[in-house]
Structure formats: C-alpha cells, structure tokens
C-alpha cells in the first residue's frame, strides 16, 4: 500500500512534505542545543546542504537529493525561529521591563495611536494603542509594543468616552503591566495569546478623564477599514437593538467581534463543537469567496476576472474586520486555492493548505504553537486527506450520475453499478411522468433527481463534519478538555444555516449602507435565521450525552493518533484494495479515538503520601488535597469579586473554568470525592460552579447555610448534579487511609446567630498524617484564632495555609505560638488592592523561623507528607524568597538568624526529630512554567486577565 501511495507522492504533494519538514525544524529550533548555535553556523550549514543537494541531483540520485532538500527545509525552520526571536526592537516594552529600564508598577503617561475605534462593551470600553513613547521621570522615551486599556463602567456614575477614532493620537495615564499567567501546571498561556495579537501591556483606567485625544488622524486608507468596521458594528447593534443574542451572534459571525458573546451563549456552541461558526475563519471566508466568485461568473466575467474580483473583496474584508491571525490564515488559504485554479485544471487541496501554512510559518514561526493555527489547518487538512476521498467513495459517483440522467449515451462513462442505478432512476422517472398532468411531465426527471441531490448534500455535510470532528478530537481534548459526540449532528443544521447567513448578512450590511430601507427586509430574515441557529445549538447542547469534559491526553497518545490518521489517509488514497487497507487502518484509529475520548488512564496522584497544593488563583483560595489512597478533596474554588457581572456579562475570568479545572485535568482527574467551601465569599465560592459542572463530585461540604444568591445558586447546582450537600461543624471528623481530618470550626451553636463577618464562619480543617499535621483555616480572623487557642484546639502543626491571605487581622501571635508551624503558604493576588500579605504577618512568621512562600511569586505550592517528614516545592523559583530549608524547633531559629537561603523552588523538608531531614534545595527538578497555547479561548473570546477578590 505504501508503495502505491508514496510512489511519486513527493511530486504530487510537494508542499505537504516541505511544510512538514519546516515545522519539524521549528520544533527542533526550540530545543536548548539548537538555540546555542550561532546564526552564522546555521547559515553555513544550510548553504552546504543546498550545494550537496544540487550535486546529488546532478548525479541523478533523485531520492537522495529529495531527502537532502527536506533536510534543508528542516534547517530553514530552525533558522526562522532564531530570526524571529532576534527580531525584537531594543526599545520594545517587554525588553525594557525585563531590563528594569521601565517601571510598570507606577502609572505612566503612554502615547501612541489607536489601532481601531474604541470598542463599546457591556461593562465599559476597550481601547488598543500602538505605542510610540512613554513619559517617565520628566522625559519622553520612544517605545514599541501594544497596550490594551480597559475601562469598567460605574453604572451609578456613568462616564462618556471622549470622541476618538482609529488612527488618532492619544495619551493615557495608566499603570500598564505585562499580562500575568497563572503559575500552575496546565495553565493557558494568556500572555503569549495576547502577544500574538500584538498586545504586550494591559491596564485599567480609573476614569475616562485619564485618556485624551492629542491628534486627529486624517481619513485615509490606513484608517478607513477600522472606521468602517466601527460603523458596521454600530449598524448591527441598531438593527437588532431589542435582540441582544441575535446581535451578538451576527457581530461575531460577520465582523469578528466576540465581546458580546457571554458564557451562557457561548457554552452551548462549545459543547456541540459548533463554536467555529461564531469565529471568522475558513468557513466564513470560504462562503464569502464562493459568493463573490459565483456573482462574477453569473456576470459572465472570465475566470481571471472573477478570481481578481474575489481576491479584491477578500483584501477589503481582511482590512475591515481587522488583521486577526485566523482571518489572515483563512484569506491566505482561499487566495492560494484561487491562484492555483488559474494555473492548474485540478487543485490538490492538501497542497493548497500546505502552501498557505508554509507562508504563514515562514513569516511567523511561533504561529505553530497557536492552538487556533493548529485547529484551522487540521480542519481543512482533514477535508483534503479523508473527507474528499470518503465522499468520492460513497456518494460522489452516484451524485455525478444524476447529471444528464435522460442522456443514455452518457451511461457508459459510469461504473456498472452506477449505470444500473441510472437505469432504475429513469424507470422511476417514467413511472412518475405517467401519473403527472401534461404541464408537469417535463419536470418528472427533476422530481426524482432534486430530492436525491438534497439527500446526497446532507450526507456529505454529515460525513465532512464527522471527518473534521475525528481529526480535531485530540486537539479539542488537549486544549479545551472537551469531547462532543453530538458534534457531527449539531454541525449539520449549523453549517447549513451559517452558509445562508453569511452571504445574507453581508448583503444586509451592504444594502443598509446604500439605503436604510434596502437592508430592512433581509435583516428580518437574517434575525430569524440567527434565532434558529441559537435554538438549534441549545437543543443539541441540552442532550445529556452530547458533550463531556476530559483530562488532557498524553503526548504519546497524540502522536499515535496522528500516525493512525496518516495511515488512514494513505489507505483512503490507495489505488488497489482500498477497502481492505482502510479497514486495517481503521482498527487502531478507532481504538486510539476511544482512548482520547474516554481517557482510561489513572490520575497523577502521590500514592502513599498526603499532598496539599495551594493553587495560584489570584486573590482567592483553591487548595487541592490528595490522600494516600488516591481520594481527593478540593478546598474552595477561587473566584473574583473584582470581576462582577455588568450588563449581564462577566467582566473578568472564570477562575473555576480557566484556572482550577485545567489544573485538575492536568492531574488526570475526572472526579473528586469531596469539595469543601470554607465560606461564602466570592473569592472562595465563585470557581466552584465550574468545578461542579466539569467533574463528578460526591459531596459538597459547607460550614453553614448563608442567605445569599451566590451561595444558593451553588448549592442548587450541586443538588441538581446529584452531589450531597453536607454541613460540617466543630467536632466532626473523617479518616481517609491513615489521614485523620478534624473540623475545628465553626461551632454548630453559632449557626443560629447572624453572620456579621463571613470570614469567621470559615470551615477550619486540621489534617493529621502520622507525626505531622497541616492546618487549612480558610479566612478566619483574630477573634476565631483566639477562641480556638483558648480551647486548646490550635495544636502543633508543621504546615499552615496562612488565613485570610495574610491580612493584618489574622495570623495572630496566639496562632503562631500555639501551632509552631515550620512551613506556610500565602494565597494572594499580585498587586492586590488590600496590600496582602501584610508585612507584620510575614515578619511574625519569619521571626518564628517559618519558611513562607507566596502564590503570587512562587505559583502553585505543593506540600507532601509521608507521615514522618514534609517536603515543600513550588512551581516557579523566586530568588526573593528566603530559606530553602527550615528545621524544627531550635534548628529553625538558628537557620533563620544565619539567613541561610537558596532557590525557593528547591524542596524543603521538615522532620519530627527536631532537625532538618535533608537538604534538597536545588537538588529537585524545578517545576518550571510551561507556556502552552490553547483554551480558551476556549471559547474564542478575548478575556481580561482578572484578579480574584475577597470581602474586606
């Protein structure tokens, strides 16, 4: 089979081989050994390879020359990576901040030009500035980079943005900082995601008076596209003012504005794998191009003229909807395809896709890491590799046989089975004709063929949809942790409706631009179609088996799946015994697909040990607890009170969906034995809603029932999911495989009293494992600490999760003296508005010889216990932290006085014999942050980096 398919395949699919080699070079260029090579060495190696290749070709050794050519493409990929990394201006804001030449911790006066019209959002405004200079220390410094400024509207005291348009020079007084990634395993690379959009700094305006226009830009071609987009968005908003869902869908589908797609609307599209219709990508661009090309041909324009008209329309479209990478990719693919049609009678889709990918990667090698790049090209490649061959093998011959059905002279060009089918259809047509009135007899043949064409069209849409879903299965599971069995079915009506809505939508906008009444009647039909699309997607999304979440598949499974797909593509193109080879290739492909969809792998847990990991969730709490027998407990789910809902939409990140759940999936978890809510503040409660949605949870532990809408909603969601809601109070306990859990607070008697301070209703849990103890106190304050101390319940504990994020009102002298902790972790948000952790708290702990780590500096912090010693390690190293190793008792004090220190990422151990068990600083492999592209988008919507919150 391989001999049949690959005999001369380097000539039939040359671009596919070249882009594969180039991509391999990009991957190799990222390894440390390749990054140490100088550009001169890499260039010399490439030139030598070219010379050798020419010599081999001259001697007639074609295959050896072809292999050398592929090696050269690998070298070019590695070289492209080096060139891209070195192509950063010296005055780029990211470089200046890394070199401490620019202080982003203070408000500065930034100047530049607006990239686009300010975007009006449900919660305020978003403004993107191409930076030119910054004023600091009384002087202006030229800078390069992009700044995104957000303003969150105060609904009680609304402000109006000063008039400004795309291209205008503006000045903003704002504290701008690089976007921060949450430092936990499995996190989305938010900073890289924004950087690929040209956004390197973000900031929030306290008032719209802090931004002003300093120069009015001329209305020229450079700004016309962005201003046209602003006008079109305003036009859609005006047309569908009373239909917000329809307006949001059409803004996203036609103009690439996803800011009004809220979570309630986005989730059904994500569940059913139909979200691609909301994102301007290959589908919308292909429909637009097909519509324009069809109009050109109907106007009797030649092939070249129709192609030029289509390309000009696409160029205008790209300018108007902004230069976003997905749109550029789709337009480039269509451009390559149309150009190839001018030169060749038959176009190989895989070659077209490969050429477009090669051009994009040559211009920006880092695009290979972009999840949207991988998904876009995977979808189109699946159509070319499997979709087209499978359509040809199933319905293609029979669909073609419907052409000129009455012409018996054409029967001989078809296969015998197809010819017999034509004869049968003619017989059916004659039977229908005899029963029709005279004026309809001429249409008898069409009455037979038209329904059959519709059936074939539906079959092919379903087959192509299933093929795409199969190819993207591991990528969707890897980046978005989602499997959608309903996807192939849901995509049929969604694709058909979208295929009609895109041309009708652009016709509506074009008609309304000429004359308001001209766009009115198609707008009504468009609104109906949009509502039908949303209804269809929500209906499929409500199917209980239609979608579910899974952990990230391992790398080896991804590679095996890709190899199985390649084998199936080879089998589908085989010249002989095609059915046999496809059946052989199908067995491993199906098994691997089931492995991806079912994730039959055990979770990554520390068997035989007690693990407590304090996650980096910003200004909030989320703690993963793994027990020696594999049982799991999540204490709190993080959240953000600084990101309230305004205009019905969340203004910041969903910490549970975008931070806590990805970490749990990274550990391979699909279920949790229990989830504990310490108290009903947003920074502990809000993220649990996503956790309850994404995981099978047995029990939800709460400290007390609280009369708040947020708490009631979470409890109701838990009960609806079949989760037992259990109230925990002082005196209760549990024992899981040698770990004894004790609830120290709250008192059952205090539940009858009103909760004046929710912090002091926190669930306080003490875990005892062998000779060691760990305390998880929620957000209790000094009042409860004193109460517990007076009762003698604050006993020795080697580990402390610092209560209330290090607030001055907590972690009293009584608590520290009673517990004598040796390790402590503060869960705190970077630059939080409360000044947490308070210097007095940190000073008090360090004076007692406690090793203190912080999630805002160290990321996720993990503590492991085997019952005799504790080991602490952090996700990232931070040289600002002190002691890498702390002993117990007197040894701890001596170490603190001597100021012994090393990397905070090195593991520290605490034993029970009064001395340090081992020195592990620097000996353990450091958990470095991994920048992975993906989810997020999971919903496709650009999100603001939010910080969690707490009650004051």
Give a description of the structure.
- It is a single chain.
- The chain is built from 31 helices and 29 strands.
- The protein is an alpha+beta fold.
- Among the domains are: 2-86; 93-217, OB fold (Dihydrolipoamide Acetyltransferase, E2P) (Beta Barrel), CATH 2.40.50; 555-598; 610-920, Ribonuclease Z/Hydroxyacylglutathione hydrolase-like (Metallo-beta-lactamase, Chain A, 4-Layer Sandwich).
- The protein has a ten-stranded mixed beta sheet with strand order 18-17-16-13-12-11-26-27-28-29, covered by helices on one side. Strands 1, 2, 3, 4, 5, 6, 7 and 8 form an eight-stranded mixed beta sheet that branches.
- It starts with a helix and ends in a 32-residue tail after the last strand.
- Mean pLDDT is 83; it is low at 1-10, 879-906 and 912-952.
Give the N-terminus to C-terminus distance in angstroms: 70 Å
Major sheet summary line: 10 strands, mixed
Number of strands: 29
Q: Biggest sheet, strands in spatial order?
A: 18-17-16-13-12-11-26-27-28-29
The CATH architecture category of the domain at 610-920 equals 4-Layer Sandwich
Task: Kindly provide the radius of gyration, computed on alpha-carbon positions and rounded to a whole number of angstroms.
Answer: 31 Å
